[in-house]
Amino acid sequence: MQPLFAVSKLTLKAAVRYRLVLVLLGLLIGAVVLLPSVIKHDGSAQGFTQILITYTLGSITTLLGITTLWLACGSLAREVEDFSMQLVCTKPVPRWQIWMGKWLGIMILNAGLLAVSGATVYFLLMAKSRSLSPGQQKVLEEEVLVARKSAREPIPDLERFVEKAFQERIKKQAVASMDRTFVRKQIREQMYAQLQYLRPGQARRWTVKLEPGAAERLKDRPMFLRVKFFTPDYAGSNATFDLGWEVGPPEGHRRQRFANNLAPESFISFEIEGNHIGPDDTLIVDAVNLNEKPLLFPLEDGFEVLYHEGGFGLNFVRGLGIIFCWLGLLAAVGLFAASKLQFNVATFVSFGILLVGLSSGTLKQVVEQGGIVGVSSEEGIVVQKTLLNNASVYVYGGLKWVIDQVAGFSPVDALSTGRSITWLQLAQAFGVVLGIAAGLFAAAGIWIFNKRELAAPQ
Fold first, then answer.
1. pTM score
2. Which of 99, 130, 353, 369 minimizes the number of CB atoms within 10 Å of its CB?
3. Domains (range + CATH), the chain
């Protein structure tokens, strides 16, 4: 393994020689220190968090991500173009060690830069938090500078009821001639809409199962409900809506009861008491619509319970660990493109792959509508099942699955909302992002690099 570490050492030296490290370190420190000075927050804990965590960590991830792609493409493609790689390959060094040595060197550089910039963000966050008012400092400590676990009510599986309703509808002559996939889709959407709508005066119950021992551990600790709802005729106005809440076992006489006035179309978090969890570690929450208009709570993210799990320091370190996994994937993508292509083309292809990764919405649309050719504008699905449409569903569906697995780990959002990033999530990020996604690019890149004729005219 000595050649592998020798290549990684040479990669680091090349980055230092081109002053990349100093320039990038200056940009990172500038983003962390200058950004909060230029953009002023509104004095609230939310505004403070938006700048000190969301903006700064987002800037760090963007700068390191772009640099990682550029350095990965340049460190391999440039050495092939200036014929220095041919000299290395004349030595008894397997090409896979050269490829992996490049990746290791880039990741050692990323680890150092991420550690320095991350530590700067953390200490700056702790220092500047003292400038907030005592009330906002309490909000910051309870809702942001903490690791809170999330729990939701499971989305019910209605496929059995959808199929039953479908069999009843196709008995009608007007429905029997329609596309069956479209009919099932309409029935499914109607059933889920009934579960999401809260009509005027109507009550809605959420039953959320917490972890074992939660009733005892969370006693006398504050918990939070995070809700988001929509209303049909909101249209961006400043209207707010009244909701009544009851928290605790319905058979108990000491349920927590209160009402609040909330704005729609945005996430809102408010505190509840932690003493109303049932003996089976189940939290029951009832909401009543006190308005004359219906409200819609999405099943996916309309209602969520947040409760204390740990401290912020380790949570922050685990978040940086997930960002490190992302950088490892980007380094593998850049080296994969440079294994065959020249520097300019490899850079273009790498950023193209990155853009595809950010377009999961388009991939989801193709899968849901059943193809890419002959889509009905009225029904939103393909009219005919062709070979191209079937192939596109499989290809786009596979890409979407991989992208969803990678994008499912979002440490910046979790840290800015005080959510817990568990060790299991960090292990899953290493396994999925580095083990599977980056591993596939690495395997393909090494195979291409092994087959490449370096002595061929460029």
1. 0.78
2. 130
3. 2-146+313-451 (no CATH), 159-310 (2.60.120)
